[in-house]
């Protein structure tokens, strides 16, 4: 599986695959000595000295104009066409308009996983999916498309349950052992694995 990690800001998680540092996230990588395949952005969030540090740790730098029709993230995301999995670090919290756009992107692209120290957010479509508990206490779902779900190995199981957009009872479930099985018979969900 070809994986890329987009770093937008501070992060605590481990990076996998190729690394793209996005604006201040490029400095976060550089300051930790993490080599980047690409550093991109308008770099309005970094000082001259921080940018010099970025230059030492990036194979390629793409400097965007501050006045543009896309965010730095949107540009970086456009570089990920050939990847099977896109991990995004530092895209939650901070500016709500950007956070919301990142979540909307995850809703439409099942390759995209959003991480911060409390959350892992991604979308799933039709099929049988193994959900690993990892370090997360809760698992919640928001329905993106009406359908039917079965959820086994959780505190509140579902058996071919009909679900629709706007259902709110699918919040704060718990995986009982190390993993659970979510079968999406039809429809699409946004899955959130969280900690308090």
Entry summary:
The chain contains four helices and eleven strands, in the order ββαβαβαβαββββββ. With 196 residues, the chain is of the alpha/beta class.
Q: How would you summarize the topology of this molecule?
A:
Layout: E1 3-7, E2 18-22, H1 24-31, E3 36-41, H2 48-57, E4 58-63, H3 72-78, E5 85-89, H4 96-108, E6 112-115, E7 119-124, E8 127-132, E9 138-152, E10 158-163, E11 179-194
Parallel strand pairs: 1-2, 1-5, 2-3, 3-4, 5-6
Antiparallel strand pairs: 6-7, 7-11, 8-11, 9-10, 9-11
How is this structure best described in words?
With 196 residues, the protein is an alpha/beta fold. The protein folds into 2 domains: 115 residues, Thiamin pyrophosphokinase, catalytic domain (Rossmann fold); 72 residues, Jelly Rolls. It is 19% helix and 41% strand. The chain is built from 4 helices and 11 strands; from the N terminus they run ββαβαβαβαββββββ. Strands 1, 2, 3, 4, 5, 6, 7, 8, 9, 10 and 11 form an 11-stranded mixed beta sheet that branches. A hairpin with a 3-residue loop joins strand 6 and strand 7. Helix 1 packs across helix 2. It is elongated and about 55 Å long. The two termini are 31 Å apart. The mean pLDDT is 95.
């Amino acid at each position: 599986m070809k994986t890329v990690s987009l770093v937008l800001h501070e992060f605590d998680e481990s990076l996998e695959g190729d690394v793209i540092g996005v604006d201040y996230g490029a400095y976060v990588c550089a300051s930790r000595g993490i080599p980047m395949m690409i550093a991109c952005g308008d770099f309005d969030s970094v000082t001259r000295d921080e940018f010099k540090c970025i230059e030492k740790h990036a194979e390629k730098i793409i400097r965007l104009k501050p006045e543009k029709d896309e965010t730095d993230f949107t540009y970086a995301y456009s570089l990920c066409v050939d990847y099977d999995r896109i991990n995004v670090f530092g895209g939650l919290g901070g500016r709500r308009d950007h956070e919301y756009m990142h979540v909307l992107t995850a809703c439409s692209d099942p390759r995209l996983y959003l991480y911060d120290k409390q959350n892992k957010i991604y979308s799933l479509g039709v099929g049988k999916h193994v959900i690993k508990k990892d370090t997360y206490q809760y698992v919640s779902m928001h329905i993106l498309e009406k359908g039917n779900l079965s959820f086994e190995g959780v505190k509140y199981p579902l058996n071919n349950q009909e679900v629709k957009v706007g259902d709110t009872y699918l919040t704060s479930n718990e995986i009982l052992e190390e993993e659970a099985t979510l079968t999406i018979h039809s429809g699409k969900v946004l899955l959130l694995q969280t900690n308090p």
